[in-house]
Design goal:
- The protein starts with a strand and ends in a 6-residue tail after the last strand.
- Helices cover 24% and strands 24% of the residues.
- The chain has one domain: Beta-grasp domain (Ubiquitin-like (UB roll)).
- Strands 2-1-5-3-4 form a 5-stranded mixed β-sheet.
- The chain has 3 helices and 5 strands; from the N terminus they run E-H-E-H-H-E-E-E.
- A hairpin with a 2-residue loop joins strand 3 and strand 4.
- It is an alpha+beta fold.
Length: 87
């Protein structure tokens, strides 16, 4: 069995997803962040709402900023969070 991917949700994504984190086994065919988002969005109405506009969601894979094309593999940590502004 493949190691699960640890997913972290921050800020309003946590509220809409209904959890701060979860461990999931990647389904067949999911190998990048874009595919993961599509799969997550299809899982529940809350997830669909959380990822309704992917342009408003940033991600990091293993604590490195990523994008929809960033590869995801078993054992990785993926964090989803809103855009951050500095000041």
């Amino acid at each position: 069995m493949n190691a699960p991917v640890h997913i972290l949700y921050f800020a309003w994504l946590r509220e809409r997803a209904g959890a701060g984190s979860e461990d999931v086994v990647l389904p067949d065919g999911v190998s990048d962040v874009g595919g993961l988002i599509d799969w997550l969005r299809a899982r529940s109405p809350g997830m669909a709402q959380a990822f309704a506009d992917p342009a408003l969601v940033r991600c990091a894979v293993n604590q490195e900023f990523g994008n929809a094309a960033t590869k995801v593999k078993p054992g990785d940590e993926v964090a989803f969070f809103p855009p951050v502004t500095g000041g």
